[in-house]
Amino acid sequence: MTACKKQKNPSIYRCLSITATAIVLLVFLAGCDKQPSSKAFNSTEAIEKSLEVFPSNNYAHLPRLYATPNALHASWVESEDSLSVLKYAVLRQGKWSVPEIISSGSDWFVNWADFPNLAVNNGVVLATFLQKSARGTYDYDIKYSLRNATNGHWSIPKKLHNDTVAAEHGFVSLIAYQDGFFASWLDGRNTKSNKSKTQGHEQHMGAMTLRAAQIGSDGSVSKRVLLDKRVCDCCNTAVVHTSKGVAVIYRDRSDSKAETRDIYSTVYQDSLWSYPAPIHRDRWMINGCPVNGPAIASQKAVTAAAWFTAAQEDPRVMVAFSQDGGLHFDLPIRMDAGNAVGRVGVAMKDEQTALVSWVAPQDEQTLLQLGVITSDGQKRPPITISKTTAERQSGFPQIAQVQDATYVVWTEVAQDSASIKMMRLRL
Fold first, then answer.
1. Which residues contact 197 (CB under 8 A, 6 or more apart)?
2. Would you give the end-to-end CA distance of the chain in angstroms?
3. Rounded Cα–Cα distance for residues 152 and 275 (Å)
4. How far is it, in rounded angstroms, from Cα 266 to Cα 168?
5. What beta strand segments (E) does 31-157 contain?
6. pLDDT digits over 335-344, tens only?
7. Banded model confidence at residue 200, pLDDT cuts 50, 70, 90
8. Is the pTM higher than 0.85?
């Protein structure tokens, strides 16, 4: 992999030969935030919904899903006092396997927005979790473990990143890639100085970075790369394998004093990374992390990206399609019915249809909702999956598609407990 850095859009230089009037017109049009009109979804098919058993016990939260052609893989965390246990199970032909313990510890960083992740490739399972590296609240490392496809044993956890700075490392995204895996993550090594300290606290020196690497099925890490040297500090990343290569999307952070935090993408194609570019210029100016990252899914030539923005003080969930593997995206379409909390997920139902999940307020309630949209803009009205809460403990709902079944999982919180719920839909 080759490191990339942000550059001015090369297309700007193609405009030098046109007249000044045309330039003004192009700039004006580029600044417009016009959305394409959506169409009613042309379908009279009934929606089948059923609550399914999820194989967790005790205080369970932070579920993650990974779909393979014939199975749904899941990881989650069960907590008891200070002990956290990361578990794994797989759903095949309607039956869950016996849950396995991936790893456990009392020194983990367990957080509603920065959670363990997993991916599966040819029977090998890769799982990540976060372990404290120092006494600072956000000093933690990314650890990963692999499940052997032959004997089912989990490897001794190793550190993913190659620095030794006690800083924030997390928000991992994983996919199967070639014979192993691809990972992207937020890396805070530049936010700390090991040499300079003030009143016992390390001085903040730089910005959060976005980094990536490949992980072999044998656990080796290679082709490490810095993708972006300044990104939003605590919004999750997202990664997908597209028709062009690997696409990573994330929330950027501008250098300007009035910080703009829009969703950017970069694509790994032919051993090179594309320059990071905005999926759409929402122009969300916010001097702080909104803790609300994007999601991405792809099938054949079509890629769908979903995200939350509150630009112009209008909280909303957007989705945009790409027909070229994530290099360029069409104008986005709004998915919510007028307001949203965010916490998006996305899956492809088929090569032209995306399923988008999000959390939204409605009157005095908070709902987990699901939208269906085609690449030409046809939409179903939002489908309510469940009542939920905007509290942090409810985390980020997950969505996955296996054959003709859509699975949505979420954390249901009570006063002193949490449990994982799952719904299966056929749309």
1. 203
2. 40
3. 40
4. 22
5. 39-40, 48-52, 59-68, 71-80, 83-92, 95-96, 100-105, 117-121, 124-132, 140-147
6. 999 999 999 9
7. very low
8. yes
In single-letter form, the type of residue at position 230 comes to R
> What sign does the CA torsion over 258, 238, 294, 42 have?
positive
Residue 233 lies in a domain: yes
Q: List 396's β-bridge partners, or say none.
A: none
The verdict on residue 391 lying in a domain is no
Residue type, 398: Q
**Rounded CA gap, 259 and 255, in Å?**
7
SS3 203: coil
User: Could you tell me if residue 154 is inside a domain?
Assistant: yes
Cα–Cα distance list, 190 to 231, 232, 238 (Å): 12, 13, 21
The residue range of the domain holding 231 is 10-32+65-342
* Number of domains into which the chain is organized: 1
Tell me whether residue 147 is in a domain. Answer: yes
Cβ 226 vs Cβ 248: under 8 Å: no
CATH number at residue 180: 2.120.10
Pairing of strands 95-96, 83-92: antiparallel
